[in-house]
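Appendix C. Worked example: 28S ribosomal protein S22, mitochondrial
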Amino acid sequence: MLRRTVAILRRSAQRYPDGHRLSFYRAFSAWIDNVNRSNLLESTSEDLDVEKIFTNSEVQKLLGELTGLDLEGKIFASRRIERQERSHYALMTDNMFAQTVERMKEEARHFLQFVPIKEPRADTFTVLADDKEIAGFDESKFVFTDVTFDVNDQDRTVVVREPDGILRTATPEEHDRMNRVYYQQPNRPIFEPPLFTYPHLQNALDRDEHEFVLDWACYFYEPDDPAFVKLCRTVYDRTVAEKKFSLLYSTRHFGAFVFYLVLNGNIPPLLNHFGAQGSLSNAAKLIRLQKIVHRNWRMAIGSEDDDRKIVQDYIKQNLRHKAELKDLIGLLEGKRRASSPSRPVAQRRTQLSPPENVGLMDEQSLKSEEGPLGDLAKTYTVRVARSSFDGQERQESKPARTGPGVSRRKGGSGDKRQK
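Step 2, the predicted output written as structure tokens:
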């Protein structure tokens, strides 16, 4: 049976343009909800190339601006890791602090690289042969996996021999499971973790662990796995239903989440969230993004239109969503204060800077529990070591003695005074 299987695979390889690697057929529009298809724009009557649109430079730029850059609250916030690290404190000048913040921003942008939007592989298989003469040879299936060294996981050939004699290609779930069997990785079990199934998934979302679920899903699944697409849509829909946009804001998942809402024409909840945050610019960027994705959308946006005009035109043309846009309408009417534009780091205090009421770093503040040492200042004896430079600086800062009849003249190894 093994020889016959190998011969069939060789003949099948000639039928595929990629040599011995069997290609997968992809489904289409898996990111568009069929239930809400009636809510989509008129321009979505034709099929959209989701992958091509997502990688568009204009789309990527707007998604990056909408994602934000919350350094202290999200990107570099405390996380549960295997090995805990102690906080590091450093004394810096204003220029050093500004340069450090810029370096941290560059590093943060690396962590905010978007999760790719891929159409899932079709959850089907291709029958390669039907050998009735070996039907009933065994009660179990035989899985044949290509373990060639230079073959990657996506293009690896995996075929299954059924007990009835049918030789077929593996389904996406079988294909990825065989990859996990032969090429194991830490925290990547062979079978799907219970976290991704009911009721464990619902319990995790109830605890607002949306980011944790999506992070593990990106590590466990391939981007074009049908189970990954289904899981992402479940988390995204739950986020919109509960209006917990801040859980994904300034994470690597926010861009794909916003793109999912735009594809399905479901941006009013997020627009209202930006209105509640006082961010009129983000609301206008979201409307621009929808216009780029849906080119034939009836709303026209001029190159000279400012943010306020874009938002006002959207509300006028979508009065059916007026009840969902109360906070955004209140922002336009002046009932909410718009967020102020950002200023240069050197001219303002950033989120990484200490509060305004914190004094300078001195001996008293170091010995107090409110200082950087915290409870350690009470547990241990704190001593401040002074260098010779401090003594020289204090000596130079003393005022000179002046008075009637007193003059100073340098000479020899010291000063001489004469009356």
